[in-house]
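Researcher: Structure prediction, please.
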Amino acid sequence: MLYNSGIKVWVLTGDKIETAICICKNANIKKKKHNIYIFRHENIKSTSNLIREFNSILHNIESYVLFFDNIIIQNCIKYIPNAFVDFAANARAVVCCRCSPIEKKEIAILIKTIKKKKILCIGDGGNDVAMIQSADIGIGVLGKEGKQVVHDSDIIVSKFKNIKKLILYYGNNTFLQTSSLCSFLIHRGFILTYLQFIYSYIFFSIPVSIFQGWLQIGYTTYYTTAPFLSLLLDIKIKKNLIYLYPEIYKNKKHKRKLDLKSFFIIVWISIFQGTVVMLGALKLFNDNYNNLINISFSSLIVLEIMNIHLEVESWHPLMISANICSFIVYIFSMFILRNYFDIMIDDQEEKCKNKN
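Model: Predicted structure follows.
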């Protein structure tokens, strides 16, 4: 499942090759359709012979699970680290046997520096601490070999089987949820800046904020914070779906949410929506300054909540409550903060003037 999701598996163990083969079969790292290739120092006397062994299976390496003994690992780390990592990274899985804690750490650092990839290391004993500390993300499994690895890990799991759920389900959804949250935070800040730019340009570059006092504070806190944070409850990918199709994990479409292209898309959307809000308010209420500010601000709040609704894929009761509560707070604030929301007062004054 991890292989189908695009995750390369390296097993760094202190066991013998025979024991490691049994473990890989039980863990489904090695299946019936896959071949085993063992690199023993008794059969390979020099580095040139080792490279020839690499080239002999290079054409079909994706179907192999590679096993290396301790002496071969030491020679690879010392003499041909780049060739070793580039070759082994193409295999279905790599198993390094009889590894010491220092060798585990060195292999982890080699993979990270040569392949320029993020690595996740998992361990359950004190001999895995150095490896976990050198990784980008370290997961400690509670076991009988002591709790030292738990204290040095970024994430702790009680059982090894929980790692599948942690990586595929929680990892995938957390990434997508955080991406959505960051996108909306960028949009929320940029559209406010753009509205201020249009406002200053139209009114001869006056140094006055378009939304003053509680309006500006409320926009960034009371009116929009709860809906934004509720995006963290949006489950993008169901658990049974990611287990059935682990290829979703390596889908590049999901991983493009925080790149430069996505940033410019957010900026363009903010410019378009900000232009519509401000020019629409100017067109409808050009003769009344207070109505201009109030309508543009109300449109902005509704727009932000609508954008969130379009992003949500699975609704949670707390998400619905957050949106409703934010809207209720906004309605009540129109009556409490009359100095900022004085549309009704202005209408009454105009009626009195017309009667007189």
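Model: The chain has two domains: 2-117, 165-341.
Researcher: Thanks, that helps.
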